[in-house]
Amino acid sequence: MTTVTRRRVLRALGGGGLGLLAAGGLGTAQAYRFGVTRHTRTLPGLEAPLRVAFLTDLHYGLYIGAGSVRAWVEATNRERPDVVLLGGDQLDSRMDEPPEALLAELARLRAPLGVYGVWGNHDYGSFGFYGGRQYGPARGDWQGTRAQLEAAFANAGVTMLRNAGRPLRDDLYVGGVDDLWHGQPDVRAALAEAGKRATLLVMHNPDLLPELPGRVGLTLCGHTHGGQVRLPFAGAVMVPSRYGQRFAMGWVEGAQGTPAYVSRGLGLSGIPFRNLCEPEVAVMELRPSGEVTPGQ
């Protein structure tokens, strides 16, 4: 397991590199600008087109407030997605009570097939599974906090999938996997009811990709932030993955040739900087396999 901390990133950047980022607020400015990336693919088993919006790594709490989430939600709604998927690390601070400001913004998401999400490693810190500077000490009742938050997200219209799935249409199924580092991920359970439908799989950490038990239609991941701080020619300073740069961001491939997309995410982890790594709302235009898809 690779753990990214503020100290390790700053040490990797070095005093000069950090100075360049901080000069004029450059790194901070990049941290709070975001874009919408659009991707067109075919999805085996799909019988009608599908538009998916993928938002991941919101990290609400430490460096991210409701205003940022509001902007992301508004940008997502303008894309008119059929379904919205959240890729984990929605939370990044101690949660003694449900985060009402965050939930009020997420409740504004509009998608006829619903909004679904999974938990990530920072969510488990927010539950109290482990301690930290923004989480306080670990606590024995973390599972009760997780259950309370799952109910609160459901009340806001977000169904959290923990090794579970849902049929969204006769031709479409979505599955969600628990966090790799702190949960108990079970891909087979997440896809158990998929049958012959086209499948979307959401899992926070892309390090599960080589361990998929079989080919999946499309897998969506977050966690890496694209490295969050990237340098010209060198790429990401650090990626929280045992596979290094392999799953840092973008289109990658999992077991059995499964296509997967690793989003750069939206929030911030460890330090309030980004460099050459714009936050993104990823929009997937998915087509039936028989259609000609540009770029494939």
Automatic annotation (TrEMBL):
Q: Can you tell which superkingdom this protein's organism belongs to?
A: Bacteria
PROSITE patterns (alphabetical): TAT (PS51318)
Annotated GO MF terms:
metal ion binding; UDP-2,3-diacylglucosamine hydrolase activity
| Sorted UniProt keywords | Hydrolase, Metal-binding
Q: Which Pfam families does this UniProt record tie to the protein?
A: Metallophos
Keyword Hydrolase attached: yes
State the name under which the record lists this protein: Metallophosphoesterase
- Which species is listed as the source? Deinococcus arcticus
